[in-house]
Amino acid sequence: MTGYGRSFALWREAAGAWDDYVRHPFVQGLGDGTLPRDGFLRYLVQDYRFLIHFSRAWALGAAKAGTLAEMRACIATVDALVNHEMPLHIRICAEAGIPAETLETTPEAPGNLAYTRYVLEAGYSGDFLDLLAALAPCVLGYGEIGARLAREGAADSPYRDWIATYASEDYQRTCREVGALIDAAVAARLGDAPETLPRWRELAGRFATATRLEAAFWNLGLEN
Ligand SMILES: Cc1ncc(C[n+]2csc(CCO)c2C)c(N)n1
């Protein structure tokens, strides 16, 4: 399996739509190179706004954290997103002829609004675990997708840079660290047999909903 921790493995198994997400036609098109370029760019423009709200969600994680270690992990993700991934996103879009202004002015698609605000709401109305369960499919799903597409051999795909980013040892380490953060946060709050508690069902439900919203997000790049 992926090595992203026990909670992830169990939530993933229970989330009915996991394969709809990680084996979505958009993902298959990234791997075999058949994804139309304009669809990929539409996805990128929406993803810029998505990442803004995800940065906010990780910042909320720092506010909801229970220990300094949890706080550090969230802050490190905010730093990576805001100072490294967002500038990269802006550069990739600029190279594709999409000015920064377009990224700011393109209306958010309803599926984008639904997903990002769902995750933020999980954090506002819930606790640290609710927020992590809603964030997990995004981080770990891309790790799983990148690793699989690279394994299946996507060297010829025009999207090989995208794939290489998520297949990289750097990103895979991040995924293992986030998986470990989740397991430790669960153990600290719910003990050694968390899956026996009613609370577990709620967290698995958060994960499953975010998974469905990830699957729907790919559609933004396939619809016209
Ligand atoms: C729709 C959508 N889902 C997931 C990601 C991937 N992603 C989002 S934030 C982040 C870093 C840690 O949270 C990563 C890898 C994306 N870009 N767009």
Q: How would you sum up this structure, described in words?
A:
This protein is mainly α and 224 residues long. The chain has one domain (6-219): Heme oxygenase-like (Heme Oxygenase, Chain A, Up-down Bundle), CATH 1.20.910.10. The protein is 79% helix and 0% strand. The chain contains eleven helices and no strands. It has helices at residues 6-14, 18-22, 25-32, 37-64, 68-95, 100-105, 110-125, 128-151, 160-167, 169-190, 198-219. Helix 4 runs antiparallel to helix 8 (128-151) and helix 7 crosses helix 8 (128-151). The longest helix has 28 residues, at 37-64. The N and C termini lie far apart (36 Å). The mean pLDDT is 95. The protein binds the ligand Cc1ncc(C[n+]2csc(CCO)c2C)c(N)n1. Ligand VIB binds at residues 47, 50-51, 54, 77, 81, 138-139, 142, 214, 217. It comes from Paracoccus salipaludis. Keywords: Hydrolase, Thiamine biosynthesis. This is Aminopyrimidine aminohydrolase.
